[in-house]
Amino acid sequence: MSTITLTTWSLEMTSPADLVPAAPAGPEISIARAEVPSPEFSRFLYASVGGDIHWTDRLALTRAQWVEQLGRPGVETWVAYDRGTPAGYVELDPQDDGVVEIMYFGLLPDFRGRRIGGHLLSVGIARAWSLAERWPELEPTRRVWVHTCSQDGPTAMSNYQRRGFKIFKTETESKVDTPTPGPWPGA
Questions:
Q1: C-alpha span between 105 and 107 (Å, rounded)
Q2: Phi and psi torsions of 170, nearest 5°
Q3: Where is the N-acetyltransferase domain (predicted)?
Q4: Would you give per-residue pLDDT tens digits along the chain (187 residues)?
Q5: By CB atoms within 10 Å of each CB, which of 123, 124, 154, 175 scores lowest?
């Protein structure tokens, strides 16, 4: 079995003024919050976006575990649509002390390279900064962070940095090189 060196970068914003929004992607693109938590829909987004870039940590979760994760106060899923078809998503995960993690962000493969990602990320970051307005039991956001790795899409890091994120931690590790799971077995 061969191994690879995996680099993971953690990036942060400490002020809403740090956000450098991307231009809107076009009139055919809309972004809406999935206000009713749906494990099936979230798993579809997760597997479809991450299937070719080694997202595997949630694939083994039970439906009950998905319900628990999505039902926590402040967890939000924002979905980009291209003329009604899901194109990508951003999942916000509130943490202690006014910290919000962009837990997952990405586009389905057919929608990459069309300037949707910068717009979706901009909206997701803005919604992270305003999370306590929709969830009054949460502290106001004072920090937004995200992590990306060397197995993510080739434009992920540059998109985060263009939006105003700054690297605060870099980690490397050796990892067994495994094939991507695809959006479904055999894909």
A1: 7
A2: -130, 130
A3: 29-187
A4: 789 899 999 999 999 999 999 999 999 999 999 999 999 999 999 999 998 888 888 989 999 999 999 999 999 999 999 999 999 999 999 999 999 999 999 999 999 999 999 999 999 999 999 999 999 999 999 999 999 999 888 899 999 999 999 999 999 999 888 877 776 665 4
A5: 154
